[in-house]
């Protein structure tokens, strides 16, 4: 199970760029003790990297009762993060300083979904 975007994922992200802002849907499942590591990552993300690349957390919340889901489809946390463009997200991920802290996210999670969304017309 992939936790972090790979180079091929980022190339596809940029090749499908129609311009404009995107909101990244993050569905997270934490490993034992992973929530604390993720909190360290989230602190660096919100204080350093999101401001640097024009991103902002729109929503962050704990997973709760899954009303419509198969067994195992519930998530521990959900985040919505807005970026001004796909290239802003890609630049952040490529930032050497960001790469030093993203290992916290990788170690914190057992499973994740990171999906680009675009506004409806």
CATH class: Alpha Beta
Beta strand count: 4
Largest sheet: 4 strands, antiparallel
Shape estimate: globular
Tell me roughly what share of residues is in helical segments: 40-55%
Which percent range describes the beta-strand content?
Answer: 25-35%
CATH topology: Alpha-Beta Plaits
Mean pLDDT: 91
Count of discrete alpha- or pi-helical segments spanning 4 or more residues:
4
| Low-confidence regions | none
Rg of Cα set: 14 Å
Number of domains: 1
SSE order, one letter for each helix or strand: HEHEEHHE
How far is the first residue's CA from the last residue's CA? 33 Å
Broad structural category: alpha+beta
Q: Quick summary of this structure?
A:
The chain is α+β, with helices and mostly antiparallel strands.
Please tell me about this protein's structure:
- It is a single chain.
- This protein is an alpha+beta fold and 121 residues long.
- Helices cover 42% and strands 26% of the residues.
- It contains four helices and four strands, in the order αβαββααβ.
- Strands 2-3-1-4 form a four-stranded antiparallel beta sheet.
- It is globular and about 35 Å long.
- The protein starts with 6 loop residues before the first helix and ends with a strand.
- The mean pLDDT is 91.
Name some characteristics of this structure.
globular, Alpha-Beta Plaits, alpha+beta, single chain, 121 residues, four-stranded antiparallel sheet
Topology of this structure?
Layout: H1 7-15, E1 22-30, H2 34-53, E2 56-62, E3 77-83, H3 86-94, H4 96-108, E4 109-117
Antiparallel strand pairs: 1-3, 1-4, 2-3
Helix pairs in contact: 2-3, 2-4
């Amino acid at each position: 199970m992939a936790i972090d975007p790979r180079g091929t994922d980022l190339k596809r992200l940029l090749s499908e760029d129609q311009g404009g802002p995107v909101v990244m849907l993050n569905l997270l499942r934490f490993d034992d003790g992973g929530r604390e590591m993720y909190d360290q990552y989230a602190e660096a993300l919100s204080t350093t990297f999101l401001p640097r690349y024009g991103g902002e957390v729109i929503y962050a919340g704990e997973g709760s009762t899954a009303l419509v889901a198969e067994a195992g489809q519930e998530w521990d946390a959900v985040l919505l993060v807005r970026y001004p463009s796909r290239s802003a997200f890609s630049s952040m991920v490529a930032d050497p300083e960001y790469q030093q802290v993203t290992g916290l996210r990788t170690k914190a999670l057992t499973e994740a979904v990171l999906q680009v969304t675009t506004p409806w017309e």
